[in-house]
Design goal:
Layout lengths: L1 E6 L3 H10 L10 E2 L3 E5 L10 E3 L11 H5 L3 E3 L2 E4 L4 H14 L5 E9 L4 E8 L5 E6 L2 E6 L10 H10 L5 E4 L6 H9 L3 E6 L2 H13 L5 E6 L2 H6 L4 E6 L9 H7 E14 L3 H10 L2 E11 L4 E10 L1
Parallel strand pairs: 6-7, 11-12, 11-14, 12-13, 14-15
Antiparallel strand pairs: 1-3, 1-4, 2-3, 5-6, 7-8, 9-10, 15-17, 16-17
Helix pairs in contact: 4-5
The structure holds S-adenosylmethionine.
The site of S-adenosylmethionine (SAM) has 22 residues, from helix 5, strand 12 and helix 7.
Length: about 300
């Protein structure tokens, strides 16, 4: 049977992606051989992951909290849920706490607000604890949800993007947060990365995260406005634009900072029906759209899209 095969350190990311796309084979287990994790996918299309043909293992495990209580995000020792009311939130939190021993606190997310994109969180279960250490793709990230934005849902995106970077690239990460893109890339590649965020707390945590990880690349962290920072740069090989509600406002500055043939990894939240129009607008700016990917859904009709753009 066909299985996705990924190194152990990338297992959580690959599993989350496989479950999101509903491609894991019902009735068969995920297993590992000490070095690699094998995710049964049968005939599903998984072009962006390595696939091998090995014997499947029948599943006798109980249901997971995802199946019993809706999906939730895990950031280190914290689980973040969405729920219509506190009663439902308490039921979901109990199921999570019963099944996932690593979770210490569960919060209900009631929305994201402000320029720093902070989550409004209501404690549902466990002690008040918004600072935690999150692990993904072999990197460790200190996150404080009281002060900074962070989403574990982009772990696959960060893994795929870091795989496309070459040694020696000069990269600008315009909205870096605590540095998940920058750190994931610098762990793998000897790239020169300028990481910028307007939120000083995000930059403080990024500096800690640089110290906590063994990196091949070099990261320069700057607490300032991405627009003015990008305005002083030119000839960048790659620009990462992860401010999906308003990246478009910064696209002109990114084009100015990139070299001819340089790459812009661009994220935008869009209604599904508006994607074609937005892509035409982007091409009218003189950008080639080399690749397009749906990162995750935000509602029935809205998605976060990832576009790989080439500056001409
Ligand atoms: N890339 C990070 C990640 O994956 O966790 C953070 C992404 S978050 C959606 C957007 C970030 O952009 C926030 O940390 C926010 O503080 C920052 N931001 C918002 N406006 C900015 C601006 N004008 N210049 C620089 N950073 C900005």
């Amino acid at each position: 049977m066909r299985h996705i095969r990924v190194p152990m350190e990338n297992a959580e990311t690959a599993l989350r992606e496989a479950r999101k796309r509903r491609i894991t084979m019902e009735g068969y287990s995920v297993f590992n051989d000490g070095n690699y994790v094998y995710i049964p996918v049968g005939d599903s299309d998984v072009a962006d992951f390595p696939v091998v043909d090995v014997e499947g293992r029948r599943n006798r495990r109980p249901e997971t909290p995802q199946r019993t209580s809706g999906s939730f995000d895990v950031i280190g020792e914290i689980a973040i849920i969405k729920a219509r009311d506190l009663d439902k939130a308490h039921r979901i939190a109990s199921a999570i706490m019963a099944r996932k021993g690593s979770i210490k606190s569960v919060y209900m997310d009631t929305g994201i607000s402000g320029e720093y994109r902070l989550r409004n969180l209501v404690l549902v279960s466990g002690p008040e604890m918004r600072s935690t250490i999150h692990r993904e793709n072999g990197v460790v990230l200190k996150v404080d949800l009281e002060k900074v934005y962070f989403s574990p849902r982009l772990a696959t995106e960060r893994l795929l993007l870091s795989g496309r970077v070459k040694d020696g690239e000069r990269i600008l990460d315009m909205f870096c947060g605590v540095g998940p893109f920058a750190i994931t890339i610098a762990r793998k590649r000897s790239a020169e990365i300028m990481a910028v965020d307007k939120n000083p707390s995000a930059i403080e945590l990024l500096e800690e995260n640089i110290r906590m990880n063994r990196l091949k690349g070099h990261i320069t962290a700057a607490a300032c406005d991405a627009l003015s920072y990008a305005g002083k740069l030119s000839g960048m090989d790659r620009i990462i634009m992860n401010l999906p509600e308003s990246s478009g406002e910064f696209l002109g500055a990114a084009i100015g900072a990139a070299r001819k043939g340089g790459v812009i990894n661009y994220y935008e939240n869009l209604e599904v029906g508006n994607l074609g129009k937005r892509m035409r607008e982007i091409m009218d700016l003189g950008l080639e759209i080399k690749a397009k990917r749906e990162v995750h859904s935000l509602s029935r009709s809205e998605r976060m899209y990832s576009l790989e753009l080439i500056v001409s």
